[in-house]
Amino acid sequence: MTVPDRPSRMLAPSRRAQLSLFASNFFKHPRMLGSIIPSSPFLVRRLLAPVDWARARVVVEYGPGVGTITREILARLAPDATLLALETNPEFVAYLGESLPDPRLQLVAGSAETIQAELSRLGLPPADYILAGIPFSTMPAACRERILGDSHAALADDGAMLIYQFSPKVGGDLRRLFSRVEKGFEPLNILPAHLYTCRR
Ligand SMILES: C[S@@+](CC[C@H](N)C(=O)[O-])C[C@H]1O[C@@H](n2cnc3c(N)ncnc32)[C@H](O)[C@@H]1O
């Protein structure tokens, strides 16, 4: 009889490290994270469903955290495409820099507020997709409006902003700014999440 390396119910060490890094940062910055654990596979699948991977050349992710969505984006992204990830938490940035050595990933230690400056610094065209799970409902209104306005301006004409939130509060801002907003909901996540597909 062969004995498995570890019982299937145990987590791989890298997954354990991600969960523990995420949870410890939740206790330090609860409003910046919003949840004690990273997004579930159900939420990630639903969030990424609208993406046309054959067309996506510039994808931007706000708040990659420990890279739960980032890994899934990189697994689907074309070899010549770029993923620009903006993260404010220095511990997450250090972890991602070490654990995701991928030449397509441009990791920036900074806020989503710098999206336009970072796209032009890297000489990138407007984004095909911007994915965001940053806590729009708890940040100051001026900051939220600036990030949403700059994201709208940073999108290609046929681009889309894909957002998930634990509160539906941002919906009104999105409908004022974007010409088309489709709403979804994913119950299988801690916390259940509201999703928005926003097109210019
Ligand atoms: C709800 S967590 C999501 C983490 C990860 N995307 C996931 O799905 O598991 C929100 C993340 O956004 C980051 N964040 C919060 N405000 C931000 C901002 N203005 N710009 C960039 N990242 C931000 C937090 O540090 C955190 O990593």
Automatic annotation (TrEMBL):
It comes from Bisbaumannia pacifica. It comes from the Bacteria. This is Methyltransferase. Gene3D superfamilies: Vaccinia Virus protein VP39. InterPro entries: SAM-dependent_MTases_sf (IPR029063).
